[in-house]
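[Meeting: bench + compute handoff]

Bench side (C.D.) handed over the final construct sequence. Compute side (W.E.) agreed to return the predicted structure before the next meeting so the bench team could plan truncations. Sequence as handed over:
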Amino acid sequence: MDIKQIWLKILSYFSTRYKLTVSYNAVYGDADDTTYIVRKFLKKQPKYLKFLNEDKEVVEIRGADGLNYKIEEI
């Protein structure tokens, strides 16, 4: 490991992560639920979410009738 990797590992202990559970219907816990680990939310609106996931990829989720989601701090 070089110094940069060690520094990033140390910083990761102090940054907040979130567990995002998105349900495309009103029932949580069924087969259509999707779970993400979120580093940072870029935009949160009732019908649109944009965030950085654990792999630093930008993810966008849209829902025509609105989104049902839960955000938990981990």
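W.E. noted at the follow-up: The chain has a mean pLDDT of 86. C.D. will use this when planning the next construct.
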